[in-house]
Amino acid sequence: MLASQRHTYWLLIVPAVLLMLVFYIYPLIQVLWISVTEPYFGLQNYEALLTRPLLHRIWLTTLRICLITTVITVILGYLVAYAMAKVGERQRTTMMFCILLTFWLSVLIRAFAWVMLLRNGGLINSALMSLGIIDSDLPLLRNEFSVIVGMVHFMMPLAVLPIYSNMSGIDGRYVSAARGLGASPWEAFWHIHLPLSKPGLIAATILVFVFSLGFFITPAILGGGKVVMISEYIQVSFEETLRWGQATMLASSLLFAVLLTLALVARFVDLKKVFGAR
Amino acid sequence: MKGDFREKFGRGLVLGGAWTVLAFLILPMVVIFPVSVTDQYYLSLPKDGISLEHYAAFFTNEIWLSATAQSVIIATCATIFAVILGSLCAIGCWRLSTNLSESVRTFMLIPIIVPTIVQALAMYRFWIDLGIIDTYIGVILAHTLVAIPYVIITVSASLANFDLRQEQAARSLGASMPQTIRWVIVPSILPGLLSGALFAFTISFDEIVMVLFITSRAIYTLPKRIWNGIEDHLDPTIAAVATMLIAATLALLLLDLWVRHRRQRRLEQAASVGE
Fold it and tell me: Which of A47, A139, B28, B30 has its CA 20 to 30 A from that of B123?
């Protein structure tokens, strides 16, 4: 390609990159900068991460909910993907349809639906009561249970899609061969199919965990202020107390947590593949 | 025979489990519909009959209508900008395909991994300096930035299947670069462009976290109305809005399924004619 031609192709790239640098990267750097300069220069904001029990509790809650969500979502997602790889064309289309419908539907609407189902006097409680199983409302909303239900619901497509796309590429003859050589169905699955589907499993785990860490809407609505995860606390410390030093420090540490997770797994997997960029 | 039974049992267990999970996914969307036609003034199943009053409330209430209009305006603008900027960037990176342009493409995907709350905080601070808090420009800019990576991904995926020689042929026959892009590249990556546009529109139309930070009174998008509605008093109008959004999503998905089905059938027909 001629040098002048190369220049014209760079011209296509420049507008988007400039926009990203000025209006996205610069503000992010500003957040990092404020976190070490407000109210005065130093790491005193970060010190609070170590000394304030409230922040310990919030980070622990965040990590615990993320881990539980990830484990449940990936196991159930694997089950769905496995079934999708086994069933016939028609049933697979229906299953995929359910996954895609969930994937594309507004997260706010999904959280709203769960509020409707889980709240006191809500659909589940009133159904159980009219069946005579319980006589007072079960506390289903505004606790870790409801947050995890909502998060698993949100994350499920993010787990099923990569696992299924990997699984549909696995040659079924490997498992058949193992069965022909006398392995039980379980053995064939455990020793042959599961290891072959590992790339999809890893991708799903990373996606779900990373997106759970910074998740805001579902925990805020279904936690109802009782279960506070890091994202919600950032919003609270910004909106109600206007402490920029603390809000930016928490935002920076959340960003670092995400980057750290990705850096750790980048040694084992191709991250670009995980995020669909390749 | 015993092995056969165990196999069938295992298969039933997997299928049953999978459909239970799928029911868990679909259940919340199914229950919204009966609640949206309740005859009560609070969130509940219909008692003495069904009523469309909550749909009427949506279509006669200035607040809901203007929120919907604002969301449509913002999402349309953000989609146009994101598709133009994102696809040009993807085409440039694809055509250059050097190490540097590859790194640039990776760099452009950063908004995918940055937690929304972090970017919302960052934008709030910068948007104040720029004086674009609570303006259309501010929200459109924010949504364009977060939608660009998804356009780049879908367009790049389309470009990967596009034969570079077509582009070279057009250029050597004297087509300028804008002409080549318009008449050669764009028609062949149209599926990628469309799904990129769909992604961008959905992202902007549903986005709430950034909107909560960078708007106050003037900009009130549909998600922000729904958010306030959930926080305040759980108005059944939200159930009506939700039902309509679910119906729209369903319609789009069915359309997509139908288009794919038709394309596949055409390919099969072409293949059988070829034989």
Answer: A47
**Contacts of residue A215 in chain B, CB cutoff 8 Å?**
115
Domain span at residue A266? 45-274
- Can you give the residue range of the structural domain that contains B206? 53-256
Q: Report pLDDT for A67.
A: 97
ipTM: 0.91
B156 contacts in A (CB within 8 Å)?
277
User: How many Cα atoms occupy the beta-carbon half-sphere of B127 within 13 Å?
Assistant: 24
Listed by number, the residues of chain B in 164-223 with a beta carbon closer than 8 Å to a beta carbon of chain A are 171, 177, 202, 205-206, 208-209, 212-213, 223
Q: Looking at residue B198, which CATH number applies to its domain?
A: 1.10.3720.10
Same domain, A6 and A86: no
Give pLDDT, residue B258.
84
The rounded distance, in Å, linking the Cα atoms of A82 and A167 is 7
For A136-176, what is each residue's pLDDT tens digit? 888 899 899 999 999 999 999 999 999 999 998 888 888 88
Question: Is A6 within 8 Å of B96 when comparing Cβ atoms?
Answer: yes
Sequence letter at residue A179: R
Residue B11 domain flag: no
Residue B271 in any domain: the answer is: no
The tens digit of pLDDT for each residue in B199-226 reads 999 999 999 999 999 999 999 999 999 9
Chain B neighbors of A193, CB-CB under 8 A: none
- How many domains is chain A built from? 2
CA B166 and chain centroid, separation = 31
Chain-chain contact of B92 with A11 (C-beta, under 8 angstroms): yes
Could you tell me if residue B77 is inside a domain? yes
C-beta atoms surrounding B190 within 10 Å = 11
B67–A contact, CB cutoff 8 A: no
Smallest CA–CA distance, residue A13 to chain B, in Å, is 4
Q: What is the CATH number of the domain that holds A77?
A: 1.10.3720.10
Distances, alpha carbon A158 to alpha carbons A70, B154, B158, in Å: 11, 17, 21
Place of tokens 């991904």: B153
> Roughly how many angstroms between the first and final C-alpha of chain B, as a whole number?
44
State whether residue B38 is helix, strand or coil.
coil
CB contacts, 8 Å: A153 with chain B: 24-25, 28
Closest-approach residue (CA) in chain B for A76: B21
Judge whether residue B275 has pLDDT over 60. no
Inside any domain, residue B262: no
How many Å is the maximal CA-CA distance in chain B? 76
* Cβ–Cβ below 8 Å for B14 and A83: yes
